[in-house]
Amino acid sequence: MNPLILRLAAKRVVIAFLTLLFVAFTIFFATEMLPGDVAEILLGQAATPEAVAGLRTAMHLDQPAFLRFIYWLGELFTGDFGVSYVNKMPIADLIGGRLVNSLKLAGVTAVISVPIALALGITAAIKRGTLYDRIVSIFTISVISVPEFMVATIAVIVFAVYLGWLPALSMTNEVTSIGGLLKAFAMPVITLSFVVSAQMIRMSRAAVLETLNTPYVEMALLKGASRRRMVLRHALPNALGPIVNAVALSLSYLLGGVIIVETIFNYPGIAKLMLDAVSTRDLPLIQSCAMIFCLGYLLLITIADLVAIISNPRLQ
Asked: What is the pLDDT of residue 44?
């Protein structure tokens, strides 16, 4: 492989690692600045000062914040997420099943939204200026302009209230058949697919349009290449990097949107677990969930950057 590509790829991985360290620092000290004393919240208002002080010592809250951050970071890199303040259970056990549920939701959404969004975005770019392109553009702008909770609310009103086809809440623990599983996933997947697809259509269309306007594509047309061959053999391979970037950015947006969707539909995912931890001020659980979200985002962005570097024809 080209040494320049290796250097750029290594540089991008190092930047991602440093970014992860900075994110960990920010998450830890942001949660530390939340109002209230954890020991007092856990023991209640009737707790004596001696009991509060003893609990603070047992939880190492009497130590300097920076020392606790180093200790927490070291445990985090060894895979030890610590113990929940509220449930007194290992955080890894609490997160395990919820993370699987969130990955299922994200995976089903990606399988449905990515092919549809890429097909619409690429074809809209090919048919630029036509009625089809205008309809796709109006659709994407309309969906992007509407927040996730509004899309979820409209989905509930249409599919659950008026049509009665789907349940308003996603009760995955009551699923006993494939049909029930599809119904449980339908509402969250519909909501997330709309939001993610709109972003992806817009960015993939822009990426293909930029490639179609390059001199080498125009030269291929002048040499007699068919429009289909021009797109498949010349435009798409060179637009692969921007398209992968568009997919990664859209799927990373899914990590933020899933928090709202899991809350509205009562879906038992990691985002819902994080919100419950915020309400009980379970700091280790909040920090672990936030780190998982940030790690997922960094992985998607880093993979997209690496694909863009490797597929860049100017670096070959």
From this structure: 62
Asked if residues 40 and 55 have their Cβ atoms less than 8 Å apart, the reply is: no
- Can you give the pLDDT at residue 224? 67
Q: Is the pLDDT of residue 273 over 80?
A: yes
DSSP label of 173: G
Tokens of 88: 């007194």
Which pTM value belongs to this model? Answer: 0.74
For residues 106 and 254, the answer to whether their CB atoms sit within 8 Å is yes
Rounded Cα distance between 83 and 283, Å, is 10
DSSP secondary structure, the chain, as one string: --HHHHHHHHHHHHHHHHHHHHHHHHHHHHHHTSSS-HHHHHH-TT--HHHHHHHHHHTTTTS-HHHHHHHHHHHHHTT---B-TTT-SBHHHHHHHHHHHHHHHHHHHHHHHHHHHHHHHHHHHHTTTSHHHHHHHHHHHHHHHS-HHHHHHHHIIIIIIIS--S-SS--GGG--SHHHHHHHHHHHHHHHHHHHHHHHHHHHHHHHHHHHTSHHHHHHHHTT--HHHIIIIIIHHHHHHHHHHHHHHHHHHHHHHHHHHHHHTT--SHHHHHHHHHHHT-HHHHHHHHHHHHHHHHHHHHHHHHHHHHH-GGG-
Confidence of residue 234 (pLDDT cuts 50, 70, 90): low
| pLDDT band of 34, cuts 50, 70, 90 | low
